[in-house]
Design brief:
Layout lengths: L9 H13 L16 H8 L8 E2 L6 E4 L10 H12 L11 E2 L2 E4 L9 E2 L3 H14 L10 E16 L2 E16 L6 E4 L10 E2 L19 H5 L5 H11 L7 H14 L5 H11 L6 E7 L5 E9 L4 E7 L6 E8 L15 E13 L6 H4 L1
Antiparallel strand pairs: 1-2, 2-6, 3-4, 4-7, 5-10, 6-7, 6-14, 7-8, 8-9, 10-11, 11-12, 12-13, 13-14
């Protein structure tokens, strides 16, 4: 959550979950899921705050701490905490093997070799990525069509059961997203947040009658078409609209651009401008070898969050410079309970498998072809 937000006690966490129930966002018997709400907006908004906070899950015996929490752009700490509990979906249960979280099995912590970071070749790399983005086949999304994004993701978290804390991970799983150009219609299939294999609607208004306005943290395609493509003006807008979020302005600007790369469909000129804007953020480096969630190796554009000790990496194909995915890697040793999060722990990883324009909701590119 926000760097200024204090950590919650278990009692505060239980109060948070109770508040979330009263706002019709919780489900019975300790099961949490996003139900008939604009999940896409929540997930994008969730990526606007810090990743490391302790949360107590409601109705579940045990406590967990997500290392790569979705970062809610909800300013009320209690509501943000409850949202974190919903995303986690009750991973901790006592006893038995094969614990499942919203349909996703849990396993050991994800790890990797920490790659060496350098500023050498960074301007040239970002120029090449920007040029490749500008030349990419990038069809315009028409009214009645949908942006389709298929990805795989996994993460590592701290799990506490019977006062014993250990590291665990959520199994790599597939996520399919559809969203209309104006952002008012959509669908999500994600076993981490959907109980039903058929998925959930993202269409607006939500069950509370809300129709959130698109913004940088929850952009629609139509919103993105209206953004400036001047890198300096674009970066200034990002800094202004994310003021107070994340640990530092520079890290939050980097994170915001990364979120736009992963689960949105920026128009061609904006896509190229995002990389030119990223080149102007202090502290950005190159990691010459990094792998996405499905093991594809490439070169990464990265930045270290000094407060959390995690390095956020955007991974690109070495030859084509196509965006493959992203990951967060712990690179600094921590203290206390956090000492379990050793350097080399992959706290979050994703891979974009398909990004396309389709003519109908729940239609895939193979069906369209």
């Amino acid at each position: 959550m926000n760097a200024n937000t204090s950590r919650q006690s278990p009692a505060e966490g239980e109060e948070s979950a109770q508040l979330f129930t009263r706002t019709a966002r919780d489900l019975p018997s300790g099961r949490h899921q996003f139900h008939k709400e604009r999940l896409m907006a929540q997930i994008h908004e969730a990526r606007q705050e810090e990743r490391q906070e302790e949360r107590t899950t409601a109705g579940v015996p045990g406590r967990i701490r997500r290392l790569r929490l979705p970062r809610p752009a909800i300013t009320l700490p209690v509501l943000a905490a409850a949202l974190a509990g919903v995303v986690v979906a009750g991973v901790v249960r006592t006893g038995g093997d094969g614990v499942r979280d919203g349909g996703v099995a849990t396993g050991p912590a994800l790890t990797t070799t920490v790659g060496v970071a350098t500023t050498k070749g960074l301007p040239q790399l970002l120029d090449q990525i920007s040029l490749a983005a500008a030349e990419d086949d990038h069809p315009v999304v028409k009214p009645g069509q949908y942006v389709y994004i298929e990805s795989k993701s996994a993460d590592t978290f701290l799990k506490t059961v019977d006062d014993k804390t250990s590291l665990a991970s959520h199994q790599l799983h597939t996520r399919q997203l559809w969203e209309s150009p104006d952002g008012t219609k959509g669908w999500l299939i994600d076993p981490a947040v959907n109980d039903s294999p058929e998925g959930e609607t993202l269409s607006l208004p939500d069950e509370l009658g809300n129709t959130p306005k698109a913004h940088l943290g929850a952009p629609s395609y139509d919103y993105l078409t209206k953004l400036t493509t001047n890198p300096d003006e674009l970066l200034a807008k990002i800094y202004k609209e994310t003021e107070g979020q994340g640990n530092t302005p520079d890290q939050q600007a980097f994170t915001t651009i990364g979120d736009l790369l992963s689960e949105s469909y920026p128009p061609a000129e904006l896509y190229s401008a995002l990389f030119k804007a990223a080149a102007k953020i202090p502290g950005v480096v190159v990691v010459n070898d990094a792998a996405d969630a499905v093991g594809r190796h490439g070169v990464a554009v990265a930045r270290l969050d000094e407060a959390s000790g995690q390095r956020e990496e955007w991974i690109f194909d070495t030859k084509s410079h196509v965006f493959l995915g992203e990951r967060s890697v712990q690179v600094k040793r921590l203290s206390g309970t956090d000492a379990l999060i050793k350097p080399g722990t992959v706290t979050y990883t994703s891979a974009i498998l398909n990004r396309a324009i389709v003519d109908g909701i729940k239609q895939t590119p193979s069906q369209a072809g």
